[in-house]
Design brief:
Oligomer: heterodimer
Radius of gyration of chain B: 14 Å
Largest sheet of chain A: 5 strands, mixed
Shape of chain B: globular
Helix content of chain B: under 10%
Shape of chain A: globular
Radius of gyration of chain A: 13 Å
Number of strands of chain A: 9
Largest interface: A-B, 27 and 28 residues
Chain lengths: ~110, ~120
């Protein structure tokens, strides 16, 4: 079962920042937080991941709370192409790593 | 970035036939590959995990004799849906992860839409 909780849907105005929350209150010490998104009829696209420090790449920023029980994915300037289902997943690290188990995600609609 | 190629993109076939789907990692060695299935308006469901050179591990409720997985090389895994029936119609997606740090991300193919008539 998925170990994360996300709102089922969110709207965002084009050009504004999209802040997608995720709750993972049962996360363990060796589990990372991963974010993927799935645009309709395509495979999931990797966005970003982190353990405890905030992370930023060309796509997004990931803010993880100090207690690691929740995180927020930030798309700084949302465009219409960012409309997708966003999945927050926790997965253990280690030699083989764990499995990515998908929950229901957040359906983000970016509106003009 | 890492690229995973899946083929075919879509396939339509008659009930009772077997269908093979290929998944290739194009620019990295995939020590572990995963197969998912997704029904309309639902999330991805993990079917099985395979490590190169060993037998796949199937998730509970997934029939291993129905969904044959072969991971014979570090760049190729195949999923064969045997004696497919209309209820097997779905979106099948593969994913791959390479060597190295255990927290590196998995990368996904673009999926295969399977329709059984």
């Amino acid at each position: 079962d998925a170990k994360t909780t996300q709102p089922p849907s969110m709207d965002c105005a084009e050009g504004r920042a999209a802040n997608l929350p995720c709750n993972h209150s049962t996360i363990s010490g060796n589990e990372y937080v991963y974010w993927y998104r799935q645009i309709h009829s395509q495979g999931p696209q990797y966005i970003i991941h982190g353990l405890k420090n905030n992370e930023t790449n060309e796509m997004a920023s990931l803010i993880i709370t100090e207690d690691r029980k929740s995180s927020t994915l930030i798309l700084p300037h949302a465009t219409l192409r960012d409309t997708a289902v966003y999945y927050c997943i926790v997965r253990e690290s280690g030699n083989q790593g764990g499995k990515l188990i998908f929950g229901q995600g957040t359906e983000l609609s970016v509106k003009p | 970035g890492a690229v995973v190629s899946q083929h075919p993109s879509w396939v339509i076939c008659k009930s009772g036939t077997s269908v093979k789907i290929e998944c290739r990692s194009l620019d990295f060695q995939a020590t572990t590959m995963f197969w998912y299935r997704q029904f309309p308006k639902q999330s991805l469901m993990l079917m099985a995990t395979s490590n190169e050179g060993s037998k796949a591990t199937y998730e509970q409720g997934v029939e291993k004799d129905k969904f044959l997985i072969n991971h014979a090389s570090l760049t190729l895994s195949t999923l064969t849906v045997t004696s497919a029936h209309p209820e097997d119609s779905s979106f099948y997606i593969c994913s791959a992860r390479g060597r190295g740090r255990g927290h590196q991300p998995q990368h996904f193919g673009d999926g295969t839409r399977l329709s059984i008539l």
